[in-house]
Amino acid sequence: MRVKKKVDIEHFDNFNKRDGEASCIEFYNYFPRRGLYNSLGIDNAKFPVALDENMDMEIDISSGNFDELKGVAYIKQYFPNSKSYEHRLLLYGNDKKVYLNQLFSYDFKLHYIFDITLDSPPVTLAYKKNDQDVVLLTSTNKMYIWKVNYSPYAITNVPIITSMCMNEGVLYCTIREPSFKIWYTEDLDAERLGTPNRKSGYITLADELGESRKILTFNEEVYVFRDYGISKITKSKNELLVSQIYLSNTKLFSNTVSICGNAILFVTADGLYTFNGVKVSKLSVNLNIELIDTDNSSCASSLGEKYYLAIRAKFDDEKIMCEEGEYKNNALLILDTIDYSYQIIRGVDIGGLLPIKTDICEKMLLTFNSVHTDKLGEICSSSTCFNTVLPKYWVSGDLCDCANTKLFTRLIIKCEQGIKFNLLHSGKSTSFTTYQSGNNEFSFRICSKDMRIEIESNNLSANVEKVTLEYYEY
Predict the structure, then answer these.
(1) For the chain, first and last CA: distance in Å?
(2) At residue 173, does pLDDT exceed 80?
(3) In angstroms, rounded to a whole number, what is the distance separating the alpha carbons of residues 239 and 41?
């Protein structure tokens, strides 16, 4: 006797096949929730023309004397003469020069900062010393100190700094070699770095956690992220004390460390972790993708409660966008740390991320390793990459609960027009394309022991609300 049954797919973010629903085994350029929605996209970076204007304009990257943008930083400086703050972008090109762009003004061109040349994208830190804003720019060959109303000047006899932070009036730095030393200066005098004296020196981290990669301040404490763990630096009277907070069995990827909301997120060789200042926990987020070469290419940053992670990942055998040439990363994962929903923008080779958060606007800026190296991007809502529509894809796991042969007879879809649905069965594929926005129905007769549904579209908008597959079981 034949029994008519059906499979309803409404929860497209079901990554672990729970509640008897269809599971999702791979997706990109879609945002799976209760419904399948267009992902975010990437566009040229735009900022308001002025504080009282409602119009945005693109940063004129072409006004710089370079053809590849290698790095970007944001600084906010207070100018006593005008009694006002200025918001600035510092951009570093492959001409080894540093350029300035004054945000929220009518000038969207880049202006070369006279006499600054660096051999690598600068590590930057802005802080206040003696009621004066100071910016440090360090690279593999020198460090520049830039004080408000003064020209930047170079310091050459300092270690190669890889990261910096400031806490309770002390400046801390990780250095390239030897990487087990943490340099500090108690009076925020960066010129003293590399020269031990009464108010500056270094801390030696002699234990099994490996090299020091990144230092940051979190909840008024100083933490050092190392190859295989986390150390904490505590200032007690006239002494700096070091303690182990976390020992990892797998390597930590320092470029993925980022403060997100009330925790620090980072990636190791076996997954995504969170640190709240007391303990480290692995996030139960099923990424459904295989990470490749994460240590060398990945990077991350955060804005609000969202964690942005650029990765090199293995998807299906298709090659899309940046994957058609040489690339380091091919995807951007955007994780919401409130509900742990996430989306993946595939086909973009992101090399750096910079959050901008001011009273005027909030946005995540992007630089690129390939394809778009002459652009400064930002995350947008368009589901495109610089006006190229992102190809969208979603595929389910096997919809059959048992190995018996079934007769599949009808596919009912509520979605937009022009989306391709592939029924994958017994090593074959049967395809249908939706002919209208709203309800679409297709009738057929397919006998198979297995069945998966694959959704793909090159449309700008390709939202899917519900999919129903009817069949008979004997």
Answers:
(1) 6
(2) yes
(3) 49
Which residue has better confidence, 197 or 342? 342
Number of domains in the chain: 2
Domain of 399: which CATH number? 2.60.120
Residue 270 C-alpha from the chain's centroid:
18
- The pLDDT tens digits for 244-253 are 999 999 999 9
Residue with tokens 């994460």, as numbered in its chain: 294
Q: What range defines the domain where residue 449 resides?
A: 3-38+393-473
Distance, in Å, from the CA atom of 120 to the CA atom of 111, rounded to the nearest integer, reads 19
- Gap between the Cα atoms of 200 and 171, Å rounded: 9
DSSP string, 159-170: --EEEEEEETTE
Q: Quick one: tokens of 447?
A: 């006998």
| Same domain for 45 and 34 | no
pLDDT at 110 (0 to 100):
96
Q: Can the peptide bond before residue 159 be classed as cis, meaning omega within 30 degrees of 0? A: no
Higher pLDDT, 206 or 420: 420
Asked if 16 and 132 sit in the same domain, the reply is no
Residue 295 clears pLDDT 80, i.e. is over it: no
Position with higher pLDDT, 353 vs 212:
353
Task: State which amino acid sits at residue 407.
Answer: L
Sequential DSSP letters for 130-193: TTEEEEEEE-SS-EEEEETTS--EEE-SS--EEEEEEETTEEEEEESTTTTEEEEETT--GGGT
Of 390, 418, 449, the last residue of a domain is 390
- Is 0.85 surpassed by the pTM of this model? yes
Q: From CA 180, how far away is CA 240, in angstroms rounded?
A: 15
Contacts of 202 (CB under 8 A, 6+ apart): 181, 182, 183, 184, 196
